[in-house]
Design goal:
rod-shaped; 4 helices
Amino acid sequence: MRAVRADKKKNQSGLTLIEVLAATGIMAACISGLLLTYINLFTITDLMRDFTLAANAASQKAEELKRLSYDSILAYNNTTFPVAGFPNPADAIGRIEVSNATIAHLRRIRVVVSFRTRGRVIGEDLNLNGMLDDGENTALYAEASGPRLDSPVEIVTYAGNFTF
């Protein structure tokens, strides 16, 4: 009778402590990966919200300038404007550049917005003063554009003075 009881103990199935610890470790790694993804989605959401605010402000300012008379547009060259929608108004600034286009009776309007999101400045205007200061013309933009203030949020449009 005793021999039968010994066989029953040997045939019992279950998980060892090492198997439980290994499964727990794998599950913890998967959950932490999902948690990091979730946190990064918040970061991306904030960045996209701020990009949208900046792009809308640039577009609105460009359309506002196009509604002005042809002669008064040039007065806005090298001016700045505040960007609405940011929690801290000092976290974003727009710059307007107006020049004569190569075609007669046409003005080129360039609107650039630099902003701070989650501690990072997007655009070359690192101190958000609306001007390109020493050290702000980064290598990312310097070769393509020369010494001008650049940002991923930039709108270029034209306004004309045509009479028929």
